[in-house]
Amino acid sequence: MSTHPTVHEVTERIRARSRDLRSAYLQRLAEIRGRDRGSDRMGCANVAHAVAGIPSNDKLKVVAERAPNIGVVNAYNDMLSAHAPFQGYPDIIKHEARRLGATAQVAGGVPAMCDGVTQGTPGMELSLFSRDVIAMGTAVALTHDMFDAALLLGVCDKIVPGLLIGALHFGHLPTVFVPAGPMPSGLSNSAKAKVREQAAQGLVGRQGLLDAEMAAYHSQGTCTFYGTANSNQMLLEAMGLHVPGTAFIQPGEGLREALTREAVRTVLGRAAANAYAVPPIGEMVDERCIVNAMAALLATGGSTNHLIHWVAVARSAGILIDWNDFSELSEVVPLLTRVYPNGTADVNEFQAAGGPGFVIGELLDAGLMHADVLTVRAGGLREYANIPSLAGEPSREHVLRWHPAAPSKNEAVARPVSAPFSATGGLKLLSGNLGRSVIKVSSVPDDRHVIEAPARVFDSQGALQQAFNAGELERDVVCVVRWQGPQANGMPELHKLTPPLSVLQGKGFRVALVTDGRMSGASGKVPAAIHVSPEAAAGGPLAKVRDGDLIRLDSVAGTLEVLVPADEWAARKNATMPDAQRTANGHGLGRELFAGMRRNALTAEEGACTWL
């Protein structure tokens, strides 16, 4: 199948836009790859320090036998259910490496925070910036520079983008990502959302709400809704950076350990299926690879956070993308899945229907992904249209087998390109006199794609919740929540706004949210124009909006406008962030340490990068 014309055109535009930056990046990789290996290049004292803590046999392999040495970067902690399984992974990796005549060292750990824990708290204001901290932590770990390859262990929201950004700054290393998988299904996501809405109305008390949440989030593994964490895994599959089909195998399954061992074999070029020298990650992640990730995101209605994160990821590989690229791809990439919040199924049901392998196969067959890309496997991206299984005891070698993910086992969850849920993707670019923003329309009812209503302006999500509780929003309204961008307070997610806005919409009111903050993959069924850029704190037009201004959010036409006469709008002065709020944003619970990041952060469309 030839590449779809729009996919080809967007890819070529990205290639042309990035030519100088990408060329310089690849030149740096070539220079680094030309060096001698670490233990031959470094001074004797450096080498002695590097191997002082490992067993004697491993020292011999690294220094005398010149065996491959894998650097492991681990995002383990047991605060995150998704990352708790990683505790035992280093031992598995080292055992498999030794069995193959290689060695592995845990090069370092990186922080990993749970947005579910910090939602609506000051800690959430560190969340977006934690991505760049993780990238720097990855760089610190790999800077020991004794490694011939890398395995990166991470799953959740900011962790995978941070690991990937860090890895691309060590783009000379062959690199494989190792996930841990989703928790078993508990209370359904739709049932949980219903209880949250009831709690917002005062119909369910704290104990009832807590019982529901505990039934939903109940064991080790990733949360089962299709938010940022699980979107991360879909994108890594589409980029060919996993062992194929690894994303959504649950932590407790025997297949999970077999796939982790296969990741070791893969990065060493000794995969069960074939022998193959894995290319450096910086060469693999080119403009075609980035476009493949974008297509996978759109086809699955994935998290809007990736319109920020993957801009930063691409930039780390010398590639420049913007929201126009996403928008144009969205016009031709169909929506193939319905996974909560875009439907009732969770990721376990998605996996049972065919999972990432089904989606990738469909997109490849339709020419909506580039097949001619490098991956960590010899078979290229076609291998990622398969699902793995065990063909024997986990203790045996070469027990992994792969079979085609197609056809879909449940077309209520995953459909072919020939019969999609929607002919276009789940994300839309909005622009107008309020700036540029994005909206996730894949779960928004068709009759809510255009909202026109008076504005009610809030300086914080807490203020909106207070107005809701006081009954002040019982009408058609566009809620504007500003001072939530990267420079203002680190751009927290505003999930706490979903239940009250859903209640208002459920009562028949026409409501929408407009904000320079984030909503992630859990924005749900309420129209939300998010990531508005430039943000209010940087002089963006949200700072001009006043209560009662008529706002039109039109996700069909792709516009976001305040319907105020042009001369009046031009003459209107910007409001400023309240001094008390600015002071509060900068103090307490570690926020002082992130002042430099707030000052240096680029716009959301530029990836909110703090390191450029």
From TrEMBL:
[4Fe-4S] cluster binds at C156, C223. Residues 68-383 form the Dihydroxy-acid/6-phosphogluconate dehydratase N-terminal domain. Binds 1 [4Fe-4S] cluster. Its EC number is 4.2.1.12. Pathway: Carbohydrate metabolism; Entner-Doudoroff pathway. Residues 413-608 form the Dihydroxy-acid/6-phosphogluconate dehydratase C-terminal domain. InterPro entries: 6-phosphgluc_deHydtase (IPR004786), Dihydro-acid_dehy_C (IPR042096), DiOHA_6PGluconate_deHydtase_CS (IPR020558), ILV_EDD_C (IPR056740), ILV_EDD_N (IPR000581), IlvD/EDD_N (IPR037237). Keywords: 4Fe-4S, Carbohydrate metabolism, Gluconate utilization, Iron, Iron-sulfur, Lyase, Metal-binding. Signal peptide: none annotated. Its cofactor is [4Fe-4S] cluster. It catalyses: 6-phospho-D-gluconate = 2-dehydro-3-deoxy-6-phospho-D-gluconate + H2O. Catalyzes the dehydration of 6-phospho-D-gluconate to 2-dehydro-3-deoxy-6-phospho-D-gluconate. NCBIfam families: edd (TIGR01196). Belongs to the IlvD/Edd family. This is Phosphogluconate dehydratase. It comes from Variovorax defluvii. The lineage of its organism: Bacteria, Pseudomonadati, Pseudomonadota, Betaproteobacteria, Burkholderiales.
